[in-house]
Amino acid sequence: MHRTPNTGLRVTQVTIAGVIALSLPAGAVAAFGFDTNRGTTADTIGTIFFLAIVALLSTPWWPLASQRHRTPFDRLQSMCFLWFAVTFTTHLTWELVWLLLHHRIAMSANSPWAYPWWMYIDGGDARYLHPSSTLLVQEFLSVINGIVGFSGLAVWWRSKGRSATATLLLMSTVVVHIYSTSIYFGTEMIRGYPNVDTSSFVDFWIKFWLLNGLWLVMPFAVFAWGRVTLARQLATVQPSPEPEIATVPELAEATV
């Protein structure tokens, strides 16, 4: 069956999204079903996960014939909405389950169901094994952020992109990202990285810095999109003209 370039791009995006969604359970299958080395598996899946997210976010900028008509703003908007899908889904899946079951996950290092979290605990950040109250609050805020974000998307689609409220809701989520991620990085740096395997390039640079760093970089793309979008939305809301009040002489002339 012939596919248009647009359809081909959509298929590519769905395929990459599938890689992101299935990478963590695939790691559990590899480690427990095929007895692969846990450390090597975690490093491989972490790298694939990061590269797949970057690839997905880059798709609107690919030099394809089907995208030649798109303006830089159109491409920026597509990238932001792909980011919304990635981050809000992460908040309400991986982070939500960890928040609810972190005690059980900590005691289930050798259970396949808990391995998607242990892939990050092993080398990525041991704070998820024995979380502090600060980390628990951060993850709670992330879950709330996911709810706010999906609410913003719902308002956006219902209004067909005309709602300034939806834009403000979506922009508000990245404020939390900057705040929470800055604390996440800053507290570990100040303490000298006691919870991260700094001897491993994948654990330190890819799993800890680059993967989490997306939550510090993408907010600025969202702010750029939101600023232009809000200006366009508010420009379409024109105040109704106030009726002119005739003066006494004008009224007198009108009655003659």
Number of strands: 0
Work out the helix count.
8
The helix/strand order is HHHHHHHH
Distance between the termini: 79 Å
Topology:
Elements: H1 5-33, H2 38-58, H3 72-106, H4 115-121, H5 133-158, H6 164-190, H7 201-235, H8 248-255
Helix pairs in contact: 1-2, 2-3, 2-7, 3-4, 3-5, 3-7, 5-6, 6-7
Write structural notes for this entry.
The structure is a single chain. By secondary structure, the chain is mostly helical. It has a domain at 72-238. It is 73% helix and 0% strand. It has helices at residues 5-33, 38-58, 72-106, 115-121, 133-158, 164-190, 201-235, 248-255. Helix 5 runs antiparallel to helix 6. The termini are far apart. The model is unreliable at 1-5 and 246-256 (pLDDT under 50).
In short:
The protein is mainly alpha-helical and 256 residues long.
Keywords:
256 residues, disordered C terminus, globular, mainly alpha
